[in-house]
Amino acid sequence: ARGLPPGAAAEGDAAVDSVVQYLDAADFDAVVGGDTPVLVDYYATWCGPCRLMDPTVVELAKQYEGRLQVYKLDCGAHKEKCKELGIRMLPTFQTYRNGELLQEMFGTSTDKLTEIINSAVA
């Protein structure tokens, strides 16, 4: 996600790695509505802690590939959607299954992120 101006990510663009995809606000409901658990990483290009978490998110996406879909939603480019979802801190991570929010965490705790992913794929 580094170096991309806000709004540069289009539907289907690869994100920081092929196992992590950018999410467009218009596709949000369809993406989180499936049977496969989904992790959404809410970030902004100007957010240092968000960039700090990028390698961790990619590593976890690879570790859980096939059991978890991982998406990033740029709250700088999609302010209204993030506001609608109540995202107030970055980074925020949420897990979903069948359109239902399972868990949410804020910040840079790899242990907590792993914990909410494990709960989602259980």
UniProtKB/TrEMBL annotation:
Q: Where is the Thioredoxin domain?
A: 9-122
Name the UniProt key words of this record, in alphabetical order: Disulfide bond, Electron transport, Redox-active center, Transport
Q: Name one Pfam family in it.
A: Thioredoxin
What is annotated as the active site?
C47, C50
Site annotation Contributes to redox potential value: residues? G48, P49
Positions of disulphide bridges: C47-C50
Query: Can you supply one Gene Ontology CC term for this chain's record?
Result: cytoplasm
| Gene Ontology MF: a single term | protein-disulfide reductase activity
Q: Which SUPFAM superfamilies match?
A: Thioredoxin-like (SSF52833)
Q: Does the keyword Transcription apply?
A: no
Identify this protein by name. Thioredoxin domain-containing protein
Say which species the protein is native to. Answer: Eutreptiella gymnastica
